[in-house]
Amino acid sequence: MDGEGSTMRRIRFYGPTDLAMPLQRGRAIEIVERFDPEALPTHAADLIELHNVQQFVEAGLFPTEYTDAQRARAKAHASAIRSIVARGFANINNINIRERIAGVDHDYHADLLELLARSGAFERCDSAAMLSALNATGVKLRTMLANKRLVRAYDTQLRDMLVSDVRNAEHLIRKHFHGDYINEIYLPGTLTPADARKLLEGYVDSADANLNYIELIETAPVRSQTGVDAKLKLRAKRRKEQMTEEFFRTNAGINTGCEVRLSDTQDDPVKVEMDGMVATFTYGRNWLDDTLDEPSILNNFQHLFGFADLSVLLIFPAYPADLGVLERVLATAGRRAYRVGVAFHTADMISLLQTRFYHHYLASKGIDLEAVIAWFFQEYLPEEFGALNFSFTPSGGDSSYLQKARHLFAEMESVAMQFSLYAENGELDRDLLAITSDPALYKELPSLLAGKYIYAGEGEEISGILHTIFSDQSGLTYINDVLNAESTAELIIHNEVTYSDFADYQRPVVDHLITLGVLEDTGTRVQFANPEQFLILRSLFKTQACSYYHLSNRGRAEADSMVARGWMTRRSSLLTPAEASYYNYFLNKVDFDNGPELRNKYLHGSQANGEGELAHFRTYIIALRLIVALVIKMNDEFRLADEEGRARD
């Protein structure tokens, strides 16, 4: 071993799959081979290194050339090492603790606390001696709070350390609100809700507050035990707005956005132009003037504005596939947060502007968009599909936007319940609807179709396929400076990649995909073996679902085969889970704490009035977008069910 002062070169076991393992294995084996069981180290750093070396041996990480005799000898040494480490830490007491742990490097701090706990040192040493020694060695409070036995042994003292500095509120935030913090945090039992409230309040007001953590407090659920109440959430909201304003006062940022224009001369329905990060959508007046009937108006939302893809899966949800690497790694999200990124905000901004533009355009033609929605439920459904008794009541033309928003949220919930009753019973009984008072559960809205959506199964095989083929973190995306792409799919589709182009370490993965029937080697290139299978896989990765009844006959046969292999499952609902989560994000707190909660606030009269009618107008446009999207989904449902019924007949 190296003694004190050389901790940077000490062995650290991070697990058998860690990239540093091959580099450290040789040195770990070297220490095992020259281990002297008669020499008893006393300094904690030496003991901790032996503890890590022992883990290399117990994991069986030997050089390939090691004989059975060498492996047996190393394992015997590992057993002796375990005993020596235990004896070394058992000798630590009040008198020698400071000397024994002095200078232990921060990489060893978690191991230090774990081995102290195992040896009973927290019971032998009083708080003054132990905590003073740990502080002198540089063990941070966050590391101490990760050790349950230490927190239990020195409960009161750690509580005093926590409340002594408002910056320690970050430990509470990580514990209760941070969705991605992987290390467990144990808080002292003597820390009261009043202590937590005072810490969080002080943190919100502090100059050193982290904006991401302030936002976590703002979106945290109100719970007395965590110290969060409505007043603190409002305080955090205002602090976030202040910090954001101060940031952009001194940082210009990047100009992003979108604009919508109307052209009197353009023949194309729409043209899209990009100027840097600003998108301009120009719509032809001739097209819009020629599509003023109700079916065409609703079709324009679906096809012209692109509210749904070709399989009628909504484009709005925050799909994980749309998150960039930095958004996935650096974003700070709460435990019940809806994970949004640039793609989500872009689709949200564009679709709101499109809805506002079209609402204004239709109004200029004397057409009320709400009346078009009423036509869908009250005339189109009974005439086209024989679905009777549906109703939708438009808000009054002279109503304020506050009243319109409230009314539209209520009507949207009503039509969701109407569809649910129709799908469950094959008819809509208005008397049954009248006694149904429960709020609409968007994740439980039923379907008219059996097995409407295909979802990825829970097995490792399908998750590995999706990651390897479509993720930007796949090991097959880069071959050389010429052959590389954002995903394996793009690489293979847009290039003639031969099997020999792949590096030796990549070929086992390619071989596995070929064995599974995902890829094939034609001799001249590696390509996808089955186009229908590829389209299903791509939909599963991009939108977390695939619409079974939008597949061709060959596509359905392939889907059935994938279900039989255990790769996929089929379930029925009006909305996919991702689409339902999108509705819950905007409307309520069923799944998420960071959404605008518009339905709850407007129906309960707790919406903010600070921005006046303009804020209510924006909410009204959001409500219009949500109900139009619901109409698109319901129309697709009725149309597919009708086609399937006629096909069976």
Describe the structure.
- This protein is mostly helical and 649 residues long.
- It has helices at 21-33, 44-58, 68-90, 97-101, 109-118, 121-124, 127-137, 141-144, 148-153, 155-163, 169-176, 193-205, 211-219, 230-250, 285-290, 294-304, 325-330, 342-364, 369-385, 401-425, 430-434, 460-470, 488-494, 507-515, 531-543, 553-564, 577-587, 598-603, 613-648, and strands at residues 256-263, 270-275, 277-284, 453-456, 519-521, 526-528, 546-547, 568-571.
- It has a three-stranded mixed beta sheet with strand order 1-3-2.
- A hairpin with a 4-residue loop joins β5 and β6 (526-528).
- α1 packs across α2 and α2 packs antiparallel against α3.
- The longest helix is centred in the C-terminal third of the chain and has 36 residues, at 613-648.
- It is globular and about 95 Å long.
Keyword list:
single chain; 649 residues; mainly alpha; three-stranded antiparallel β-sheet; globular; disordered N terminus
Helix content percent band: 40-55%
Oligomer: single chain
Strand content: 5-15%
Q: Give the rounded overall mean pLDDT.
A: 90
What spatial order of strands do you see in the largest sheet? 1-3-2
Kindly provide the radius of gyration, computed on alpha-carbon positions and rounded to a whole number of angstroms. Answer: 31 Å
SS summary, helix count: 29
Tell the overall outline.
globular
DSSP summary, beta strand count: 8
N-C termini distance: 82 Å
Structural class call reads mainly alpha
Outline the biggest β-sheet: 3 strands, mixed
Uncertain stretches of 5 or more adjacent residues? 1-8
